[in-house]
């Protein structure tokens, strides 16, 4: 029996015909990278291929690497296998990876979302025979509110805190979530301050996206400087000595996990806003329908539940283990500690 075009092994998702890996989690000779989050773009590969807007991001995070950038929908061939990258809508520079060989087409989604956020190029459906999908939020309980509703709530929260003479601290990951938040904050309310990790990453992204002005918090910044304004900070800053200079402050987290009852309490924040850079349940199903694929491979998240539902709907669905962790907290925390202050 002929082996599948893409297989999962100890190093990652492997295309044997091309001798290429997709988002490998161990060092390999050639890696095609879907996006810049730490769990998908790891250090140690001999050669990286990614979307050109992701090149400066992974070079900033990984250092001196051999990387080449390609445009969306630009085909490149390795050992007679045709590859192309297509917008995933997850964060800036994020891609789905299309693989074609002898008329068979597979698509690895990476991480993705369908809602347009004003920063990432919107998700583009790609027809295929087999679709590898994440299902981080693959439960019917996850149903995202409209982005405009969420940002209206965030800006109202900030304005109310300012009126109460309190500083607003809003937590979001330094790559992707922070720039999405920044894009939609209302600078007429006050000044937007940033933690060093977010300021550093935003500086990499600014040449590619129009974003409001920010001020980096330094050792010279005083509580009086930031009082009534808003601070964007990574989750790793919560509870750290860095945050103590913000008193009096109120905190909030922008995350899909805020849809879970009790998540705000567990994360010890005052307010939770439901906003994710991943698909909710309906968006996952919609994306899969768009592809026209019959074979679905579910990775990361509620894989068993989601694949079982897909099988009940007539799909040939199964699960595969990966080392992808969504917005991987531990690795991003380490990066954020190293990048800043």
From TrEMBL:
EC number(s) recorded for this UniProt protein: 3.1.-.-
EC top class named in words: hydrolase
Top-level lineage group: Bacteria
A single MF term (Gene Ontology): exonuclease activity
Annotated keywords: Exonuclease, Hydrolase, Ligase, Nuclease
NCBIfam families tied to this protein: Xnuc_lig_assoc (TIGR04122)
PANTHER family for this protein: BLL1145 PROTEIN, CLEAVAGE AND POLYADENYLATION SPECIFICITY FACTOR FAMILY MEMBER
Protein name per UniProt: Ligase-associated DNA damage response exonuclease
Protein species of origin: Formosa sediminum
């Amino acid at each position: 029996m002929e082996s599948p075009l893409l297989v999962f092994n100890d190093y990652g998702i492997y295309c044997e015909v091309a001798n290429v890996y997709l988002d490998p989690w161990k060092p390999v000779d050639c890696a095609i990278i879907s996006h810049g989050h730490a769990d998908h773009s790891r250090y140690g590969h001999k050669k990286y291929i990614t979307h050109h807007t992701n090149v400066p991001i992974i070079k900033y995070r990984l250092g001196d690497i051999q990387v080449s950038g390609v445009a969306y929908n630009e085909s490149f061939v390795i050992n007679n296998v045709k590859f192309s990258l297509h917008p995933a809508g997850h964060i800036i520079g994020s891609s789905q990876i299309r693989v074609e060989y002898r008329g068979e087409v597979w698509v690895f989604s990476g991480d993705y979302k369908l809602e347009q956020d004003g920063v990432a190029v919107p998700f583009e459906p790609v027809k295929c025979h087999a679709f590898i999908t994440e299902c981080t939020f693959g439960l019917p309980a996850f149903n995202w509110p409209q982005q405009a509703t969420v940002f209206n709530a965030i800006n109202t929260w900030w304005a109310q805190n300012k009126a109460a003479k309190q500083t607003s601290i809003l937590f979001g990951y330094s790559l992707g979530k922070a720039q999405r938040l920044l894009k939609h904050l209302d600078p007429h309310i006050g000044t937007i301050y940033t933690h060093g990790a977010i300021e550093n990453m935003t500086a990499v992204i600014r040449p590619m996206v129009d974003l409001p002005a920010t001020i980096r918090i330094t050792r010279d910044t005083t509580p009086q400087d930031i009082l009534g304004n808003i601070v964007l900070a990574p989750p790793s800053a919560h509870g750290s000595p860095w945050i103590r200079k913000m008193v009096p402050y109120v905190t909030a987290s922008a995350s899909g996990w805020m849809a879970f009852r009790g998540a705000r309490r567990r994360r010890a924040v005052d307010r939770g806003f439901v906003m994710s850079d991943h698909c909710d349940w309906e968006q996952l199903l919609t994306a899969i329908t768009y592809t026209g694929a019959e074979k679905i491979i579910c990775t990361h998240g509620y894989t068993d539940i989601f694949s079982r539902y897909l099988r009940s709907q007539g799909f040939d669905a199964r699960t595969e283990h990966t080392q992808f962790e969504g917005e991987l907290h531990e690795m991003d925390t380490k990066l954020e500690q190293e990048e800043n202050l």
